[in-house]
Amino acid sequence: MVSRAASWVSMSLVLATLLSLRTAAATAQLNADLTSPSDAAGGPFDVSPIAVVIAKGQTSSSVVVRSSGGESHFTVGGYRWTQDESGKMSFEPADELIFFPQTFTLSGGKTERIRIGAQGVDPSVEHTYRIIVYQLPPKIDPGQGKRPSIGMGFSLRVSVPIFVEPSNPKQAVDVALAVVRGDDLGVDVAATGNIHVPPSVVHVVATDVNGKSVVDTKSNVWYTLAGTKTHVDVPILHAQCSQIARVKLDLQDMLGRPLTTRDVTDPQKNCK
């Protein structure tokens, strides 16, 4: 099994959100805000590590928030995390996710450790969450005990993936060619084990009947959560579609280590 901690090196995710209300309308608003393209990295604080695994046998873990600016107020939200084949994420409140402190204040150069755990979860499967650290505007006092809610502004947000491992973790991954279309190659990455597949890179090499290279390109693949698949469209020129007779797919982690490979000798094509 590839070292999962090393697979997160150089991966940083920064997302935006608004809330933790229990109504369907509020959850829909949360999902829209968390996946908003306005999310941005940077700012006068950082969170480490960039991903957390609560391994089997462990009851908790933690992240550290470090402030490099002036005095800042923070609040923390925790959400259950799922996503569809396109990588679009969905979030909902998660009562089983325990984290503290939920509000704190830091001055420049100071740190705060946020402890994280989950209780009462099914040990046969991996559970996936997001801890989101919000830097509050100066006018909001975290001592009021307010949780993130609709209408509350945030200066910055940083989101950290949290993975609660099952009692018997098994990572398995498959890569498949869905279809060769006029303008792209459709590739599916499936997490067939009971834990997720970290962000990866799929190397696509397509050749013609004479073995001459037609397409040679790489595309990034988002997290693939356990029991799901992620679909990636690899752009090609329309003129290349009909020339393709064979496709080789190599999936690697972000450090270039092989995860799996697939050789497709009779690709399904739709070159209209």
Question: Would you give an account of this structure?
Answer:
By secondary structure, the chain is mainly beta. The chain has two domains: 4-164, Immunoglobulin-like (Sandwich); 173-270, Immunoglobulin-like (Sandwich). The chain is 7% helix and 46% strand. The chain is built from three helices and 18 strands. It has helices at 4-7, 24-34, 238-241; strands spanning 45-48, 52-54, 60-67, 72-83, 89-93, 97-100, 103-106, 111-118, 127-136, 156-164, 173-181, 184-191, 200-207, 213-221, 229-235, 246-253, 258-264, 269-270. A hairpin with a 5-residue loop joins strand 13 (200-207) and strand 14. It is elongated and about 65 Å long. Residues 1-43 have low confidence and may be disordered.
CATH class of the largest domain: Mainly Beta
Helix run count: 3
Radius of gyration: 21 Å
CATH homology-level superfamily of the largest domain: Immunoglobulins
Q: What's the average pLDDT? A: 82
Order of helices and strands: HHEEEEEEEEEEEEEEEHEEE
Assign the structural class, choosing from mainly alpha, mainly beta, alpha/beta, alpha+beta, or little secondary structure.
mainly beta
The dominant shape is elongated
* Beta-strand percentage range: over 45%
Low-pLDDT segments, ≥5 res: 1-43
Major beta sheet summary: 6 strands, mixed
Taken together, the total number of domains comes to 2
Distance between the termini: 41 Å
Strand and helix map with partners:
Blueprint: H1 4-7, H2 24-34, E1 45-48, E2 52-54, E3 60-67, E4 72-83, E5 89-93, E6 97-100, E7 103-106, E8 111-118, E9 127-136, E10 156-164, E11 173-181, E12 184-191, E13 200-207, E14 213-221, E15 229-235, H3 238-241, E16 246-253, E17 258-264, E18 269-270
Parallel strand pairs: 2-10, 11-18
Antiparallel strand pairs: 1-3, 3-8, 4-5, 4-7, 4-9, 6-8, 9-10, 11-12, 12-15, 13-14, 13-16, 16-17
